[in-house]
Glucosamine-6-phosphate deaminase
Amino acid sequence: MEVVIQPDAGAIATLVADEIERLLAARPDAVLGLATGSSPLAIYDELVRRHEAGRISFARARAFMLDEYVGLPDAHPERYRNVIDREIAGRVDFAPGAVQGPDGNAEDLVGACAAYEQAIADAGGVDLQILGIGTDGHIAFNEPGSSLGSRTRIKTLTSQTRLDNARFFDDDVDAVPVHCVTQGLATIMSARHLVLVATGSAKAEAVHHLVEGSVSAMWPATIMQHHPRATVLVDPAAASRLQ
Ligand code: F6R
């Protein structure tokens, strides 16, 4: 695992956008993995800037989202599908239908999870997966205790994650859904390049476990230590507990 410490989120975003620009130049039909939450926002802004400057096209690319809340109305602004459309997909030139996400409102959630796994496989797998990390060490919504061999499935969010995400729901923790559908740890590990970004001291403990801890389902991100190509980009505050 390569750990890169950068001064701030802007510098991290530049490096990740460089990598995505290189990937799309070499393979315009590459498959990207998109995360939601605050961590990737500077990356998405940088990608939009480069797209507007004519440097990057997503016209032949495809993308898969990591996760989705269960039970939010289709038009809810915090439904991850809407967040991704707002933050990146709707601001660049992805073809219609090229960005897919798990369906958190499917009648048959179990069947929808299996179909999502199949869709990723049919696309040839993810070339570059952007990841954030939860304060409890989750990646996607694989909360502590998640099977290291898990695939896309329904999960229950921890109280900590619901508290952390209440900021997106007018600070009303009760408005944060209890359940989600999420790519599993094995699904994420199938991507060819993992790029995790973390900033701020609230992430320092999780980053410490990710980089220096034992691989354990209790700190799910630690599975990344087994990935042949994992890059972790952090600012000094997120790196503050590294030895
Ligand atoms: C979101 C996701 C989560 C977030 C994590 C960090 O799609 O997969 O794992 O990356 O909760 O969230 P932020 O970036 O908001 O701190």
Residues 35-39, 66-67, 132-134, 138-141 surround fructose -6-phosphate (CB under 6 Å). The first helix runs from residue 9 to 26. The beta strands are 2-5, 31-34, 62-65, 67-69, 99-100, 128-131, 153-156, 179-182, 193-198, 230-234. The first strand starts at residue 2 and ends at 5.
